[in-house]
Structures are given as C-alpha cells and as structure tokens.
Automatic annotation (TrEMBL):
GO terms for cellular component: cytoplasm. It comes from Paractinoplanes tereljensis. The lineage of its organism: Bacteria, Bacillati, Actinomycetota, Actinomycetes, Micromonosporales. SUPFAM superfamilies: RCC1/BLIP-II (SSF50985). Keywords: Guanine-nucleotide releasing factor, Repeat, Signal. One of its GO terms (molecular function) is guanyl-nucleotide exchange factor activity. This is Chromosome condensation regulator. Residues 121-368 form the RCC1-like domain. InterPro entries: Ran_GTPase-activating (IPR051553), RCC1-like_dom (IPR058923), RCC1/BLIP-II (IPR009091), Reg_chr_condens (IPR000408). Residues 1-20 form the signal peptide. PANTHER family: REGULATOR OF CHROMOSOME CONDENSATION. It comes from the Bacteria. It holds the Pfam family WD40_RLD.
Length: 369
C-alpha cells in the first residue's frame, strides 16, 4: 500500500551477522515484514499463511529468513498478504496470496516463492494493495492488475479482476503510484496528483463521495512530490515539505480532528515533512529534522508512543532524530534509523516485529539479528 521514499538505512540479518548492512527498502503487510539489505538479498518474517514470506513454505517466522539466494533485489512492497519486488535488472516478481490475480502471473494460484510478472525489464516503481497491484515503467507508463470491483485499476472497464498487467490510459509521464484497499493514487512528473477507484469515504480527494473508474486529477496543484494510500484514506506530501491527507478519519488517520474529508487537508502545519507512509488506519511521517511521527489507529501500539490510544494528530515516536524516510506501517510499524538499525513496534501475534518473540510492543524494539 505504501509508496515509500527510501533512504540510506541500516539493518543486519541472519544467524552469525556480526555487523549491520545498509537496507534500501522495508515493507509491512497485515502480519509480515520484508526488507532488502544493501547487499541486495531479500529477507521476510512474520505470518506466512499465504506463502507471503517467499521461502517456498507456509511456515511462519519470528525472525528474518532469507528469500532464495538472489542478491539483486532493489525494492520491496508488501500488500495485505502478498509482496511484489523489483530487481536491479528491472524485472518484477510477486508472491503470496493471489485470489484476485494480484500477482500478475496470469493465474489466481497462490505462490509461496517469487514468480516473474511477464517478460518486461523496465519496471521502476510498484505498489501492492489489498488485492490489486499497480506499477510504473521507466517509460512513464502505468500498469495495474488484480481486483477491480470498485474501478481501482483505472482502466475504465468493468472486468471483476485482471490477472496480468493492463495499461492505465495513454499517459507516459507517471512517476510513482500507491494502492489502498480499493483505490489508487499516483503522481505524474509534472507534479500533479491523480486518484481513482472507491471514494466512499472521500479517499480520492476529489470533493465527493462515490467512485471514479478512470484517473481524476486532485485539485490543480502541481507541487505534489509523493503519495501513499491506506485502507480508505490517502496522504501526500508537496515539494514545499507540507503534508496533506484526505478520506476516512474514524481513528484520526488524517492527522486532524473531525470526520472524513473529501478534499486534502493540511497536517502538522509548521513542521517540514520529508516523507509519509500510510497503512491500514495508521500513518507515519519523517520530519526534515529526522524525527518520526505517527497517528491514527493505535489498537496494537502501532503509533509507537507507548500506548494503545488512537491519535488524531502527529505524535512523536521517541526522541531520536536519526529516522530515515524508509518507514512501513499496517497493524505494526517498522522504520529504519541512519545508524544501521531497523526498529519495529505494534502487533506481533505472528512474529512480524522480527525480534524473535510474539509479544506486542507499543514502542520501538530493535529487530533481533
């Protein structure tokens, strides 16, 4: 779901790891987590009921386990119970749940190990949602596949789902894309923001409740730098370091008080924001000073403030000022600091915090190496 702005961060994995290596990407699903260290290997841990850990089994892991032996992974994105990842050769691979064709391999068969999506080798960005996936190619074209009941693929057709990538419109200036439960948003190279799919809670930011089966521009601003979709809400940051959210707000996931919002509202005014990521009903953002802030649903401690109280405004996570923009959240949150460490907190029923236990943590704990 999360379109993350990856930083240069650190993490070490595996038995016998004496020192930490820099991580380039981290992702969180409903009950699992995956990360890529600087050496290009891929590691996952947590729940594995759909094969989302990619190790060929459906056995859960409470500590990081390596996915295959490849060392050319570049970017990882987690959906609810599946993942998609891009390799350095620009090929795209997905695995895990596939009931709606979200793996893009032409089937609806669950995969317990990575399978290649078509033959293209020009994938630049990918986002995994609940049951649909979208990705941008290096030529600026946008492709989506999987569940389409609410028009979240943006293709304008009424097909219930697609099992292979389908191009979205004719534009060739797409930069990044993000997928929520049943909606999608993307930023173009001209700084415009576009959303489509379900907007029953205002999550498209178009000023109304309803649906849009084709991409529709959000306002007229041309300064959007990044966007991230949660379950039924969306947050986006602008090039002036301001942060904006819209959609459902029952847990305070918009970072403001009140009900749902059908148009973007500013969050955390007066603070510079470097990047933002949204999960189920929780969002986290890194400030330009390196501090980390989270808000929204906190039932499992995923806000990281030591409580389980929902937060309707950005709430600081500890006192560190070394957080990077590599953050991922769902019912648990993982984030990376510049000092070669990954920290996780929140729900841990399936070992998704990677600390070797299944104990819930309401504040950051370091991944057990």
């Amino acid at each position: 779901m999360m379109a993350m702005l990856a930083g240069i961060v650190g993490i070490g994995f595996g038995a016998g790891t004496a020192s930490a290596a820099a991580a380039s990407s981290v992702a969180a699903g409903y009950a699992h987590t995956c990360a890529i260290p600087a050496n290009g290997s891929l590691w996952c841990w947590g729940g594995n009921y759909s094969g989302q850990l990619g190790d060929g089994t459906t056995t859960g892991r409470v500590a990081p386990a390596r996915v295959g032996d490849a060392s050319d992974w570049a970017k990882i994105e987690a959906g609810t119970s599946y993942n998609c990842a891009i390799r350095t050769d620009r090929s795209l691979w997905c695995w895990g749940s596939n009931s709606r064709g979200q793996l893009g391999d032409g089937s609806t068969t669950r995969r317990a190990a990575p399978v290649k999506v078509g033959d293209a080798t020009n994938w630049a960005d990918v986002s995994a949602g609940d049951s649909h996936t979208c990705a941008v190619r290096t030529d600026g074209t946008l492709w989506c596949w999987g569940f389409n009941r609410f028009g979240q693929l943006g293709t304008g057709n009424s097909n219930y789902y697609e099992t292979v990538p389908v191009r979205v419109g004719t534009a060739s200036n797409w930069a990044t894309v993000t997928t929520g439960y049943a909606h999608t948003c993307a930023v173009r190279t001209d700084g415009t923001l576009w959303c489509w799919g379900d907007s029953s809670a205002g999550q498209l930011g178009l000023g109304f409740l309803g649906y849009s089966i084709l991409p529709a521009q959000v306002g007229t601003a041309t300064t959007w730098a990044g966007v991230t979709a949660g379950y039924t809400f969306t947050c986006a940051n602008r090039s002036d370091a301001t942060l904006w959210c819209f959609g459902e707000n029952g847990y305070g996931q918009l970072g403001v008080s009140g009900t749902y919002q059908v148009s973007p509202v500013q969050v955390g005014a007066g603070r510079g924001w470097a990047g933002v990521t949204a999960g189920q009903d929780t969002a986290c953002a890194t400030a330009t000073d390196g501090s980390l802030w989270c808000w929204g649903n906190n039932m499992a401690g995923q806000v990281g403030d030591g409580t389980t109280t929902a937060r309707f405004a950005p709430t600081r996570v500890g006192s560190a000022t070394t957080w990077t923009t590599s953050v991922a959240t769902f019912y648990h949150t993982c984030a990376v600091q510049t000092g070669s460490s990954v920290w996780c907190w929140g729900n841990n029923a399936n070992g998704q915090l990677g600390d070797g236990t299944t104990t819930q943590q309401p504040a950051p704990v370091r991944v057990n190496l």
